[in-house]
Design brief:
single chain; 68 residues; elongated
Length: 68
């Protein structure tokens, strides 16, 4: 009976501490307060449009050179 109580209390302790540490920290952005991409900013244009296009072009060129 003593071992069962020890096992139960250990499980309860691990369950409660894991949920405490699983919460979203306050210093990082939350999913509910994100804003949409602002395409009037040049940084957003570079990050979300230009860089992906450059990466796709480089991947296509790499695939072509690998086939030759």
């Amino acid at each position: 009976m003593r071992n069962l109580q020890y096992l139960f209390s250990t499980c309860m302790f691990l369950t409660t501490t894991s949920t405490m540490f699983a919460q979203i920290p306050t210093e990082v952005p939350h999913p509910d307060n994100n804003s949409p991409i602002d395409l009037t900013k040049t940084a957003d244009i570079l990050i979300y449009i230009v860089l992906p296009i450059i990466i796709i072009i480089l991947l296509v060129l790499r695939a072509r050179n690998k086939n030759k």
